[in-house]
Structure formats: structure tokens, C-alpha cells
């Protein structure tokens, strides 16, 4: 199993890909809360609600964010999501979290959140982080962060984190959506199912088609 | 200087009271970012933006969230805010953070965020947390949290955290607004400037007027 | 039966507590109207819609706002709500009303609307009104209103009205939500079910625990 | 001076036509309040804010809604607006009011609010009210209202009120915008400045061009 | 069958009148997409979603916008809609299209979109277009457009297009809503079902009642 | 000058990168219109408005969308934007357009719009189009489009168009934002200024560092 896939499986829980979720500026709340009813057969923008009389305190609770994730994969990084899929009470509330663990030289590779800004706090270690503005500048803003540093990745922009240190690193990041979504650039382009035509990618990246195919084989 | 005031001074930076700020579902972003221009004389909903050519990486950065706050005050708690007042790049992005330190028996007293949901992670220690639903139920949802536990306080509802443990406790909380605002219930009612009439408070709380006045004297 | 409870029962209809409702800036309308289907078993943010072919003019209608409410309760005030619970056609439309009756010295005690701004018109009598800004200023804005006066209470802030006159007073207030919600401060703190720990309230209000308990006994 | 124009002058204050204002679901609030700074030279979506230190209680206040408007005009109706133009504190808060006076047989002619739902309360008298759905049904919902009756006109739909009674009638209506705007159908089509071509109107209404011109002459 | 009705039947598909749809600024997306489930019995603001596993590429596709509509009707114009009724994948995405065909002297009569701004491109021919601001100015902005010209009609304002040329004209317009709605002024006022009272219309338009009745007979 | 840069220069006008603009669901309109004042020194979310008295019909107008763009560049494609930078009247209105020209085998390479959904109409020729869902599925939805076909690319997802035909192709696309922004994946990752570290990209794409450097040299 490919290394980046491990990271993506975790990230995928974050995304609830193509299914249900939240956004950077979720629609306004119309009652005290609307806890996700995961048994419902009805599908709406976000999730339908449980009967408020059946809501319990555990609907607003998650345990285990102090536990390190397993970073033994090719990217050396893993994302533990805490969004509406893990805490049903987040439905309609427009916010969520992730914990990210990085082995030395571990990477959370370039990606976007289509529905969310991110604000990241370094809990342990040393990270190089960056984001790139949209066309035509594609300006890179990059900084080295240490324990207790906080950094903001504006909504929709490509960004990454890389563990520059010799020790493990840990971050907690908040996202302005109950279901921010993740699009890892390399995976969306080289790992789509079915594959994007090699001719198209070769032209887009100005590389030989066989280079494209060898990259696609990794995903 | 009164004890609760200490907590409030910190919380006040969070609130940017009556001035400028953000909300639980901020208006949508109309460009990659709109970093707050703190020199501007113009006042708008939120803050005007810097010239994007003058934006630097530090506009998205804050340092020091690993440093414990000083809890030597009557409530035994202190809030360190990281919102648009501290990180100008958060303007228009709809999210912010706080670090909260609690001495043993320290309290973050009952309050609301008029413009934000909160998702709190316990970094150290043991907290009793709770929120109360709106009228007429006024149902209390309460839980004891330990390290690594995450809890959600829905937007606009009265909530609190109390350090049940013998040791210090620390939490990091994310809020769905660049400027969530804080209304500490006791302060808004008993500590307003000028004071709310004692007759009104006495009737509202069904207590003697001199009890009201002795409480007001604390604030 | 406690006096404040009477006011709250009326207010509660306003809140549709923790159940279904609206907000200060409701999500945008996606069709001409979406009249609440009160028979539906489905729960969503707000309410599901009736078949538009079954919508009748009465779905947009309410009768009786000229009828005085019964103010014979401890607070001497009563709220008659006209929101999505009374007019199903308000679903998705982002506005509602209340009529408030005040006996002489009657009080609508300090409360917030978590999802709504309020604009109040005095129909009869003389009211002292006020609202308090968020931390740290907690500045009180207060004014005496007479017949034909209009006053605005910004979204989420603590506010109250008190009948200063010797005669009954009546107001009509509009709220920027189909289900604005009401949090009466005294009830949320001293009347929560189950109770908030007396130790916590005592510390928050800087009073003796037995004072807290005697207040809690009123609710 | 034409009769409908009198009604329109009042209504125009409501509209702040093409200038500054609010909407049915105004952008979210980013601070406790953003009182309109009417001296500012800066123009934004809505209005720029006053320095919060200079905000006074009168910024949230309007007086005189109990005073009858002058209905001696061709339509026999007059609108007294209370929106962000009258109460600067309504800026960013998403709500406003009007008082409407109707002489016997007085009419508030068919119009839309492009940015607002309306909820109307009859204070005195007897009104026939109606609204029409969008194409292709163009279904009329109509009802006779008496004192204390409340009725909802959904956002953007054509609606009217007509005084059926022998006495004056009065209503207070709330609108889900700080600046809802008014488009009186007859005026927009027959009274535009400069005029819409008579050929176009004749074709649209399937009438002779000289009929169009005689109607245009009234406006 | 009346001529304007033909145009309206097409426009009606655009409106999904009073039923289901979208808006100029639809509520934010909470997942990658929420393709309309047209088999669902549940009604919500917008439409419920299909199971994402059953979504196919055709859900994002429509064919035939190059085909001219039939303009043989009294107005000499016809609208071909491409909104959420035609492309289920547009649900929650806040945008749609129309193709408009105009015979020589063909007219798209004065109308509003209650939930949408419109941006129109002339593909062929020559159009006079106009929109009218709200009260009290009712200012007409008008321009003659030729092939390749683009024009904007702001949300909620009355607007029209008229084919000034000797040849057919074609435009494609985009609307900022999945279901913008159409209110043709003449139809809403003179063609409502049931009819608006002739007395009311006569007073609103300052014409004789029998003129009103002869216009109503056309619709 | 690199080939993709030509396409990007055009696209960049679309993006108004990091400067001023609009979004997929722009904040609600607070007046009839707020035409961008391009002379203003004030910067806000979006753009400040011109004095409405100085607004002219040309503020809502653009000419030349029938003119083919120059596709003689490496990608064989060019984007002609029509957004708030070209039509100041689009400010606050939440919609814009582009014309896209494709030489045979011309490509609009994989990119996202961080603030917009796109709905594309083929005017001439034959295009293969596709979009990829977010993690973990990264499912490709792809289709061959011909003249008159319409296709939707949901907000924030990676998508592309490729001219499969032997002739030129032309499309007009509408976007749900006054300033949708464009992030061309290859440019954001391989063409950022300054460059993203080769080590990071090599790890993200699972390629040799010298392969990364040879790709970076193209941008």
C-alpha cells in the first residue's frame, strides 16, 4: 500500500468525500443545535438532525486527541480528523479540528481545503509551513514554526507543512467548516480514479508522458 | 484590582469590544486574503485591508501559545486570545483561537460568544465543562474532560469550564469567528458601566436589593 | 408556579428550544417560499417544507396580536411570540415578531437572543430599556421610551425592558430570525436543569454558596 | 405633484435608492455593532462605522412612530420608514421597520422589496392584502386582515395592501434588511426616468401605445 | 393560447415556481456536491441530495443550448432554462444559465429575478436592454448591445431585452442562483390567478377600471 | 516567455490575485448596486463603491467577448476574463464570466477556483472536460462535450478542459463570484515565487529531486 495513501485515508475521514459535511462559512444555525442523525436515510446539504430530545452530552464530545498517530508511511505524516464525522454535534456549527503528527522529515503534502481556512498551532517540534497565492503571482509565503507558534492558511489556497526537525512534531489545526474537505494536489492530478489522460498531465506540467506515467504508478 | 477583572482583561482582547472583529459565519471572502490594516482610519464591518503588495508572512503568524498565562486572580483562570487583533491575516477568514489556563479550582465563568461556536481541546489537566440550552428547557449538558478530550459549545449558548483537578489545566479552543466576542454573564449583569438599576436586577434574580448591591460591589 | 416561569413559558414558544427554528441571518431562500411542514418526521436546519401545492393563505397568517397577555406573574411581564412555530410560512424567511405586555413595574428580565437582532416599538406606556456591550467594557446603553419610540438591541447582547410607568405598557418587537431563541440570564445560570454546581456559580458571582442556593430555589 | 409620488417619496427614504443600505440576509456582524457614520466619504456595501467610542444611545433610537402620516395623495397611503437612514445603529444588523397609514380606500400599490421579507401587523382598521408567486403560476394569495392580524410577504414577491374599511387603517411592518428597497411596479415600468420606450411597454402589456403614453403621463 | 404565456411557460421551468430551487447567494456548500435527488419525497430549502455513490457524470451535464427556441408567440421571444431542474448537479452550487431567442422585434418583457443577478452575453444580433433602479429614482439604465457585448442586471431590479434588429437575436445569460425565479411584471399584476381586484390595479396604475379589465383579458 | 504563463496572464486578470474581488457566494447586497470605485485608496473585502450619482450605464457593460483570444502559447489555450476588474458594476453581485479559446490540442490545465462554481457552455468545437473529487476517492468525472453542451464544475474542485478536436474550440463559462480566483495546480506547486523546496515537492510527488528541478525550470 502506497505511503501517501495512508495519510490520505486519515485525511479522507476529514473530507467525507462527496458525501456530507460543512464549510468555511456554513449556513446559519436555525436552532440551538442540529446534531447529525447518522441513521437518517435523508440526504441534505450537511446532515439531517437527531430528535433534540435524544441528544446526549456525548454528541458534543471526542476523546483521544493526545494520542500520536502512526507516521510509518511514505510521507511520514498522518492526520487525525475531528469533524462532523467524529462529533455529530458539529453539524451546522461551522468548525472542526485535526491533529497532525509528523515523523522527522515527515510531510503533509501540498493540498487545499475547498471549504475552509485553517489555523494551526505547533504543539511539539519544528515545522516549515507555506502557502501559495492564486494566479498570476503564485507567491509563496513560508515560515519556520516552533512550539507555541500559530499560523494561518487562507481558505482555498495550496499549503503544506514539513517537519524540519530531528524529532517528531505535532500540530493541532482548526478549520472553519464542519467538513472542510481535503484535495491533495498530487493525488487529485496523478492519482485520480480513473486516471486523467497522460497527454493532458504531460502538457500541463511540461514533462514527458512517460514521466507522468511513472508518477501515476506511485499512486 | 478585582479578580474577575483580570480574566476579563484578557478576554477583552478577545472581544475587541464594540469595535472591530469577526463572526461565527463571517461574510464570504472576496480575494485570497484581506489582511487587517490597523493604521487605517476607515471603519467597516470587520477591518479594512492592507495593500496586498505590503503583506508579509508575519501577518499570518503569532508566537507564544505554549506560554502559561498568569492565573493569580480571583477566578483562577486566564484567557490568551489569538484573533484578528493578534493576527491581522485572520480578517475575513472566520476563525480564531484562545489558550485558557486554569489554576486548581480555577474557573472560566459562565459566558456566551455572541458570534461564535467553540471547540475546545484539553492539553493538560481535568476540566468540568457545561453549556445550557435556551428557554424554556435551560437544559445543562455537562461532562468531565481529561487530556486529549474535545468538546463543542454551540454558538451563543451560556457555557463554562472549571478545573476539578489538583493540578493546573490548559486548553486550546478554536472559535468560528475572527472576533467571537465574550459576554461574561456576571459582568454584563452586575458589572455594567453604568450599573443596571438594582431594582431591575433584584426582580430578575428574585433577590433582595441589598444582595444585588453587595454583588455589584465586587465588580 | 414561579413568576418568572410564566414569562419563560411564553418566551419558550419563541425559542422552540433546541429543536427547530431560524436565525438572525437565515440561509438564503431557494424558492418563493418553504412553508414549514409540521407533520414531517424529517429534521433539518430549520424545518422541511410542505408541498407547495398544499400551501394556503393561512400559512402566512396569525391572529390576535392586539390581545393583551396575562402579566400576573412575579416578573409582571409576558411575551406573545409570532415566529415559525405560529406562522409556518416564516420558515426560511429570516424574521419574526413578539408582543410584550408589562404590568406596572413589570420586567422583561436581562436576556440574549443568540440568533437575532431586535427592533422594538412602544405601542403604549413608558419603558426603561437597556443593553450591555461585550467584554471588557460591558457598557450599558439605556434610555426611557414612550409611545411611538423605537429602539434597537444588537444581536447577541444582553438586554432588558422595564415598565417605569404607573400604567400597563405594550411593545411589539421584530427579530431578525424565524426562531431567534431566548436565553434569560437568571434562568440559564440559576435555573438550569440539572443545576450548575453551586461552587461554580458562587465563584462566578463572588457570593456565598448559600446565597446561590437560595436564588436557585426560586427557579 | 402626482399622488403616487407622495407615497413614493416616503417609500424612497426606505429604499435609499441605489445608494447605501441593508438586505434580507445582511452579511454577518463582525463586532457588537457598526453604527453608520453618515459623515464618512467612504462608500462600501452598507455603510462605514462610527468610532465605537463616539457611539451614543440615540444611535439606536427613533421617535414618532405613533404619529399618523399624511395620506392626502392619489393613492391614499403613506409609508414612514425606520431603517438605517433613520437609525444609524441598524447598520449591519439586518432588520428595519415601516409604519403605513391608509385613508379609506387607500392603497399601498403592488411593489417588491428586492432585499427583504416583510411581516405586517394591523394596528387599526381593515386591510385586504395579497402577494403573487413567481412565473408561471403567478398565484395570488389574498386575505382580509383586521386589528391584531399578522401577515407575511415572502422576499422579492409582488405584494400590496388596500384599505377596505370606511375608517383609516394603520400597520407596522418589519423587514429583514437594514435597507430593504422598494420597487413600485407601476412606477418602475411607467414612471422610469428616462421613460422605457412606449413600444416595449405596449408589447409587454398587450395594449395600444397611446394607452401606454396616457399612463406614463400620470407618473 | 396567449403569446406571453408561451414565453412564460419556458420561463416557468426557470422558476420552479414556489417549489424548489436556488438563490443569488445560495447557502454554502457542505460537501463536494449535493446532486438533486428528484425522486425524494422530502422537501427542504433547495433539494435533498442523491447518494453520492450513485452520482454520474450526466448529473452535471445538459445538451442542446445551441438549438434555437421557437419564438412564434406574441412577445416574439423564448427562454430556454438550464437550472437545477435541468442539471441536478447544480443543487447547492448557486449558479444557472438561460438561452434567450428573440425574433425581430421580439421582447423579453420587464421582469425581476427575486433571487439573482444576471450577466448576459449577446451571441447574435442586436438588443436594446435596460434596468430600472428602485424607488424613488426609478432611473432607467439602457444600452444597445451587439454581438460579443456583455451586460449586468443587478439582483432584484426590473429589466428587459428587446430585439431592435431585423434579424433574429440570441443571448446566453448566467444567473447567480440555482433557481433564480422570474416575475414578469405584466403577468404578476394583470395575470395573477385569481385576479387582483380591478379597483386596486386601476388605482395603482391610475387608469380606468375597464382599461384594466381589457388588459387582464389578454393574460 | 513560457507558454503556460501566457494562459496565466489572462487568467490572472481573472484572479486579481491577492487583491480585491468576489466569491462563490458573495456577501449579500445592501443597496441596488455598489459599482467598484477603482480610484479609491480604501481597501475592503471586495471593493469600495462609486458615488451612485456618478454611476453610468457603461459600468455594467463589456464589449468584445466574440473576439477570439490568441492561443499561440505552449498550452494552446487562453482565457479572456469578464469579472469585477473588467465590469465594475459586478462588485457585490456574485457572478462573472470568461471566454476560453482552445487551439487544436489546446489545454486549460488542471486548476481550482477557490471561490466559485463554474458552468461552461461549448460555443464551438469539441472538448474533453473533467473534475476530480476531494480525498480519499479522488474520483474523476469526465465527459466529451460538443457545441451547445453545458457542464458544471463544483466549487473548489480540480478541473480541466482539453480540445480533442482538429479545429479550434470556444467556450463561455460563468462563475459564481465577482472574482473567482484561479489556482493552476502546476504553477502553484512548480512555479511558486520563491520556489517551494525541491525536497518537499519530490516527496509529495514521489519523484527524484532532479525531476522536480527540471519541471520547475519550465515555469
TrEMBL record, chains A, B, C, D, E, F:
Coiled coil: none annotated. Pfam families: Cupin_1 (PF00190). Its main location: secreted. The keyword Protein biosynthesis does not apply. GO terms for cellular component: apoplast. Keywords: Apoplast, Cell wall, Disulfide bond, Manganese, Metal-binding, Oxidoreductase, Secreted, Signal. It catalyses: oxalate + O2 + 2 H(+) = H2O2 + 2 CO2. It is found in: Secreted, Cell wall; Secreted, Extracellular space, Apoplast. PANTHER family: GERMIN-LIKE PROTEIN SUBFAMILY 3 MEMBER 3 (PTHR31238). Belongs to the germin family. This is Germin-like protein. It comes from Lolium multiflorum (Italian ryegrass).
Amino acid at each position: 500500500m502506497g505511503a501517501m495513501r495512508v495519510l490520505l485515508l486519515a485525511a479522507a475521514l476529514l473530507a467525507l468525500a462527496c458525501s456530507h459535511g460543512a464549510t468555511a462559512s456554513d449556513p446559519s444555525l436555525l436552532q440551538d443545535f442540529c446534531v447529525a442523525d447518522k441513521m437518517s436515510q435523508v440526504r441534505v446539504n450537511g446532515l439531517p438532525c437527531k430528535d433534540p430530545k435524544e441528544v446526549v452530552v456525548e454528541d458534543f464530545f471526542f476523546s483521544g486527541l493526545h494520542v500520536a498517530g502512526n507516521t510509518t508511511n511514505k510521507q511520514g505524516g498522518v492526520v487525525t480528523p475531528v469533524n462532523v464525522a467524529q462529533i455529530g454535534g458539529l453539524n451546522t456549527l461551522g468548525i472542526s479540528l485535526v491533529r497532525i503528527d509528523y515523523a522527522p522529515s515527515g510531510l503533509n503534502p501540498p493540498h487545499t481545503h475547498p471549504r475552509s481556512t485553517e489555523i494551526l498551532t505547533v504543539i511539539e517540534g519544528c515545522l516549515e509551513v507555506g502557502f501559495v497565492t492564486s494566479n498570476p503571482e503564485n507567491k509563496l509565503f513560508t515560515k519556520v514554526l516552533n512550539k507555541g507558534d500559530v499560523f494561518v492558511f487562507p481558505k482555498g489556497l495550496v499549503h503544506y507543512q514539513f517537519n524540519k526537525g530531528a524529532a517528531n512534531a505535532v500540530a493541532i489545526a482548526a478549520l472553519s467548516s464542519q467538513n472542510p474537505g481535503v484535495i491533495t494536489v498530487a493525488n487529485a492530478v496523478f492519482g485520480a480514479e480513473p486516471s486523467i489522460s497522460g497527454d493532458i498531465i504531460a502538457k500541463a506540467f511540461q514533462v514527458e508522458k512517460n514521466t507522468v506515467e511513472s508518477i501515476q504508478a506511485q499512486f
